[in-house]
Amino acid sequence: MAIALDDKLIMAIKELGKKYAVEKIVLFGSRARGDNKPTSDIDLAIFTNKEFEEKGHLASEIDDLETLLKIDVAFITPDTDEPDFLERLKKEGVVLYEQ
């Protein structure tokens, strides 16, 4: 499935995944499904067990990525108890980075 993201942006997201040693970064939503509009936001699920402060730094760096599009981030931790959302990520998500 072709995802609707610029290669340069994908590489920048992967670099942040490495820098912050997250478990996995998954693109989901319309850009993962391929039914996005040019102005559709970018939805990222970041699997991590990092502390709140470090997640804040990562979110800030994601906000600073070179794109005019809004990027929404959902942090997924071992305590995340949203089975419907996690199932949706499995079905439609596209893994951009994984350790």
Uncertain runs are: none
Major sheet details: 4 strands, mixed
- Report mean pLDDT, rounded to a whole number: 91
Q: How large is the count of helical segments?
A: 4
Shape call: globular
Measured by DSSP, the beta-strand proportion falls in 15-25%
Strand order of the largest sheet: 3-2-1-4
Helix content: 25-40%
Count of beta strands: 4
Helix and strand succession?
HEHEHEHE
Secondary-structure content class: alpha+beta
For the termini, the CA-CA separation is 22 Å
Radius of gyration: 13 Å
How would you portray this structure in words?
It is a single chain. A 4-stranded mixed sheet has the order 3-2-1-4, with helices on both faces. The chain has helices at residues 7-19, 30-33, 52-63, 83-92; strands spanning 24-28, 42-47, 71-76, 94-98. The protein is an alpha+beta fold and 99 residues long. Helix 3 links the parallel strand 2 (42-47) and strand 3. The chain is 39% helix and 22% strand.
How would you briefly describe this protein structure?
By secondary structure, this protein is an alpha+beta fold.
